[in-house]
Amino acid sequence: MDSGNNISGHKRSRGSITATPTTTTTTTSTTRSATSSNGRGKRKGEKNNNNNNSRDNHDVELENSIKEILNKTQRPHNSIRELVKQLVTIVRVSSVNRKKTLGFLINQIKKSLAIQQQQHHQQRQSAKSTITPIEGFYTFISLFIAKDYELYENDSFLSILVKVLAKISNSQHYYIRFNTCRFLFMIINQFTRSDSIPLNDDIVQDILQILLVRVKDNKPIVRNISVQSLSRLQDNDEQQQDVAFNSLLQSLLNDELDTVRENIIKVICFKKPFLPQLLSRTNDNSTRVREKTQMVIERELGKGTFDNDAQSWLTIIQYGLKDRNHQLQKKYQTMLCSHIKTNHQSRISSFLSMFSVDQLVENEKTFKSLLLMLFENGLLPSIIATATATTSVTTTPDIDFKRIVQEKQQLAPHDVLMWKVYVSKFSSKLNKDNNNSSDSNNNNNNTLEQKLPDSLELLEYIKSSNDKYTSQNFISIFKCYPSTIINNYIVELQNVLVDLNQDIKLKLIILKLLKSYSKKDTEYFYDLFFKTFQDLRENEIGFEEMSFTNITTKLHCLEMIREIIDDQSPITDDNDINTLFEFIVGCITHQSELVREKALVCFGLLLTYYYFDNERDTLKQFQNPLNVLEFVIKNDRDQVKLAAVKTGFDIIAFRLKEFDDSFLGNFSFSFLNLLIESLHTHPPFEVLYFEGISKLFKQGILLEQGIFDHLIKYYFTPSDIEASIASKQILTCFFVIFPQQSTTSINLFYKSFKSVIQHFLYKEPKNVQKKLFPRIIDFYLEHLKPKSEKRKETCEIFINQIFIDFLEAIIVFHKCIYDKETNCNTTTNLNSLTITTDNDENNNNNNNRKIVNILLGEKSNIYFLTLLFSRFELYPYLNIGKIRCLIQILKQINPKVESKLKNIYETSNRLIGKIQDYRDYSENEKIELNQELDQLCLKPDTIEAVQQTINQPDYIIISDDDDDDNTENNNDDDEVQIKLEPIDESDQEQEQDEVMMDVEENIFHMEEDQSQQSQQSQEQYTIPKKDENNNGSPKSQCRIM
C-alpha cells in the first residue's frame, strides 16, 4: 500500500473500505551542528550524521516490514497466524523495535476504528475461506495481542491498548464506539480459549468499565455488541458478585430493544438464584425473546435446574402454555410432556406433588388447563390407571365411580383435582353401556344417580360462573346422563332459561342439548320451549321499551329463537310459527338498534324455513316479507339497513334453487331491484350487493346475463368512492374463479364482451375513454386463457370471436357517428367498398378512400386498430378471412395514414403469413373477400333499430330465454311487468344509466337528448310466470340495460 493513503471514513468511499494500516510520516532527526572548526570536530559531526541516517533507515525498514505484514491480513484465516509469528519475531529483536512497533500498531488501530462500515453484519457473512479486510486486520491484531500477553504479561501491549480504547470508546460517532466494542469482543475471545492464559484482574476491570458504559449506549448496535462482549466476561462460579453478569441482568430487565434482550437471553449464564429474572421473559412482548427463553428453559431442564422448584414451574405453566404464539405454545406443551415422562415416569401425580395446596387453589384454572393438555397428549392420572388394573393406560378406562367416591376422602388434594378434571373431560366416554340402558330402566337411573360424584353436582355448574370451562363440564355431564338430568332437573333448567341474570351462552347450550336429545319427541321439546318463551317474555311486563330489562328480554328471546330454527326438526304448529312471526316483526320496529339487527336475522331464518313452504298457504297471507325489508332499507339506520340487505341475500341463496315457487321468484328479483334503486342513495350497500351477487353466481343460483354484464361494466367504471373500491376488490376475487368455473359460467363471461365494449363506446360517443379498452381486452383474454385441456377448444373459439366482435363494434360505432353527423346512411357506400383490379382501381380509389377515412382515417380509429392487433397478434387460430378484409381496407388508405399503420401492417403479415396482392386473387376469392367485407357493414333495418334505441332507460328484463343447452322454451306471452318509479333523477343517476342490447342482434347507439332521457327514466322488470307444462323450473335471463 502506498504511504500516501489514509484510512479514514470521510476520505474513503463505502465500497472501498480497507483495513490495511497506512504508513505515518517519518520523523526527521535533527542534525547536530558542527561547532568545532578543526578536523576532529568535523569527523565527529559526520559520525553523528551517519548514526542518525542509520536510525532513520532502520525506522523506514521497520515500518515497511510492518506494513508488508499488515497488507497480507486479507489472506485466509490460516495464514494470519504465520503473519503474527513474523511480527512477534520483529518485536523480540529489541525493546526499541517493540516500542516502535506497538506505537505504529496503535496508530493504525485508531485509524481503523474510525472507519464507518455499512452493514457490518453482511460483511461477516462473506465466504468462509476468506475474511474481509477490516475483519482480517482485527483478527490479526487480537492474535498478536494474545501472543504478546504470553511474552510480556506485566507490560503487555493489551494493557497499553485498553487505556487507549477507553478514550476512543467515548467518541461522539456511534460507529467508532461500535468498532471499539467489536474489537474488544475479538480480543476477549482470544483469552476465553481453553489453551489461553487468564487475564489479570486490572485489565479485566478496565475492559469491564468500557463495556458497562457502552451496554447503556443510545445506539442499539453498540448495545448489542457490548452484550456479546460482556457475556464472555461472566464468572459462572461467583455470579452474586459478578459485575458483568449483573450488568447483563439489568439490561435484560430494562432494555426496551427486542434484539438486545434476545441477545442477552442467548448469552447469559443463569443459576438458580436468578431464575425468576429469566422466567420473567416468558411473558415478554417480543415473540423472538420468548422463543429464546423457551430454548434456554429447555436447555436448563436437561441440567436439572428446575427440579422441585414449584414457583418456577408455575411461571412456566402460566405463561408458556398460554403463549400468544401457537407454535411456541406447542413447544412448551411438548417440553412439559417430555419432562413428566422422563423425570416422573409419566406420573402426573408425582409432578403435581411439588405444589402446595395454596398454589393449587389460587391457580386452579391454570392447573386445569395443564391437566387437560396432558390428557389430550396421552398422559393419564395415576388414580385412573389404578382404578382397574386390566385397563390399558392408552385408553379411557371404565371407572368404578362408587369405589373412587368412597376413597376420595383419602386422596391428596392434587389427586382430587386431577380426578375431577379427568371426569369432566372424558365423562361422555365413561359408562356408555350403563348410560344406554338407563334410558329404559328406572333402576339404572338410580344407579347412575349414585355414581354421580358429589363434587360434580349438576346445579353447581349451572349456577356457578359461566366461563368456558364450566360450560364444557356441563356439556360432558349432560351427554353422560341425559335421561337423569331431563327427568330430575328439568325445572332447574327452565329456571335458568327464564332468568335474565344467566348468560345467554349457557342458555343456548341448554337448548341445543335438550333439542339434540329430544329428536324422537320434538313435540315435547317445542312445548317446553314455547312455555319457557312465554315465561321469559313476562320479564318485560311493566318496563318501558328502552329499559334494560325490556331490551335484555328481547335479545334473549331472539337468540333462543335463532338457536331452535332449522330444517331438521321443524315446528309443526302454525300457531307457534305465527307467534314467532308476530314477535319478530314487532322487534324489527323496536327502538333499540341491536334488537332490530337480531330480529332481522331471525326474520330471514323464519322466512327461509317456513314462509316459502308450499304446504303452508295460510302463512303466505301473513305479511309480504319484501315490505318489511323495504321499510327497513328506506327508513332505518345504516347498521340495521345493512343487516336487512344481508337477510335478503340469505333468503335468496338458500331457496332460489327451488325456483318452482313463483312467489319466491317474485320476492328474489323484487328485492334485487329494490337494492339497485338504493345504491345511489346509500353507497355502503354497494359492498353487500356485489358480495351477495357474486356469491349467487359462484353457487350457480343466479345465472342472469344482464346482471353479470352489469358486474363487469361496474368493474371498469372509474370511481374514487371508498365503497366502490371495496366492491371492486370483491369483484376481482370473483373474476379469478368464476369465468372458467363451468360451461355455463364461461358462456356468460364471453357473451358479456360485446355488451361491455358497446357500453363504453356509446356512453360518451364524442369522448371515448380509449385507454380503458386495452384493460378490457386484456381482462377478457387473461380470463379466457384455457386452464385445462377440456376448456382449450372452447376458449380458442371465444377468443377468436372476441376479435371479430371488437372489430365489428369499432366499424359500426364509427359508421353510426358518421350517419349522425352527416344525417345520411352509409350502408350503400360501405357495401360498395370492393376488391378492385388495376383497370378500375383509379375509378374507385377516391370513393373508397373517402369511405375508409370515415372509418379509419382519424387518430382515434388508428388507436383502436393498433389496439386490435397488439392484443391479438399471438393467437394463430383467429379468423383469417376477417383479417384479410381488414388488410384490404388498410391497403387503400392514403400514404399519410398508411405510414402510421406500418406496424399494424407488419404485424398482420407476421400473423397471416405472406399476404397475396389482391390482383393475384382469383375471381372466386375476390367474391369471397367482398362477401366477408360486406359482413362488416350493417343492414339498413338494423341501423334503424339502433336509432330507435336512443333515449331508452336502464331496465332489467327477466325472461324465459333459452339456456345454454336449449332445454327451455320462450314464453313471452306469459310475462308479467312490474314498474317502479325511480328514486332519484339527478345527474349522478344519468351517468349510471346504460344503454344495453340483446347480445345476439341489437347494438348500441349514442344518446340524443339527455333531458328527454331523464324524464323517461324508469325501472322496468319483467318476471316470468311458471310454465305449467314444464316440470322443471324456467331458467331466467336478466339484462341490465
UniProtKB/TrEMBL annotation:
Region entry Disordered, spans: 1-58, 954-1041
Subcellular location: Chromosome
Ranges annotated as biased composition (Polar residues): 1030-1041
GO biological processes: cell division; mitotic chromosome condensation
Ranges annotated as biased composition (Low complexity): 18-39, 1011-1020
Protein family per UniProt: Belongs to the CND3 (condensin subunit 3) family.
Name of protein: Nuclear condensin complex subunit 3 C-terminal domain-containing protein
The organism of origin for this protein: Polysphondylium violaceum
